[in-house]
Amino acid sequence: MLQTMDLRPSFFAPRSATRLGRLCYIASMAAALVCAGLEMNEIHGGVVTNFGADLFGTMWFYAILRLRRSDRSSRGWADSPASVAAVTFVLATASEIAQRVGLLRGTYDVFDIVTFALAVVACATLEYVIGPFRAPQRSAAPVALTSDSRREAGYPSI
Predict the structure, then answer these.
(1) For residue 135, which of 12, 6, 11, 30 has the smallest C-alpha distance?
(2) pLDDT in tens, 59-79
(3) Closest Cα to residue 56, out of 95, 92, 15, 90?
(4) In the prediction, which pLDDT does 2 show?
(5) Buried b / exposed e across 17-55, counting CB within 10 Å, b at 16+?
(6) DSSP type of residue 25
(7) ∠ CA(94), CA(25), CA(23), 5° rounding?
(8) In this structure, how many other beta carbons lie within 10 angstroms of the beta carbon of residue 152?
(9) pLDDT, tens digit, for every residue of 80-132?
(10) CA 48 → CA 53, 74, 81, distances in Å?
(11) Which of 2, 28, 26, 4 is nearest to 135 (CA)?
(12) pTM of the predicted model, to two decimals?
């Protein structure tokens, strides 16, 4: 009989996360929030405040997309690290271009796009080299009920 995988609940990361996925999710979230907080408080830390939120925020978004539950078949694109990296990069770059044309507040910087690329390459490389961020989804195998097992399970006899 096939057993389902029991994943411990976690307050900080989705239950579907592997140890590496949980570590990357929590570390990128904390780093992105610290960098953004420094920037919002106008504390200038050079590269850390200039590109830290872009780097770690992109990594956090990548982890969110990889770790979210994909129950629908239309979300099969999230099963591949390369697909998620591409989607993450396109969305991050679109936000930077929106700043350029005035749709979003902010300062357009081409080096932000380079930072987005570095972030998604780093995340996808981590997954391919070290291991996946998300545990494989398993479901219980259907069990053929015999008359004895039906009676033990409380089903009415046929």
Answers:
(1) 6
(2) 999 998 888 765 455 467 777
(3) 92
(4) 45
(5) bbeebbebbbebbebbeebbebbeeeeeeeebbbbbbbb
(6) H
(7) 150
(8) 10
(9) 889 999 999 999 999 999 999 999 998 899 999 999 999 999 999 999 999 88
(10) 8, 37, 26
(11) 4
(12) 0.74
Tokens of 49: 């405040």
Q: What kind and span of H or E run contains 67?
A: helix 47-67
Report the C-alpha gap between 117 and 88 in whole angstroms. Answer: 9
Whether residue 55 contacts residue 115, with contact meaning beta carbons closer than 8 Å, is answered with yes
Task: Specify the residue for token string 């679109």.
Answer: 94
- Mean pLDDT over each residue of the chain, to the nearest integer: 80
How many residues in total does the chain contain?
158
Q: Encoding tokens for residue 66?
A: 């990889």
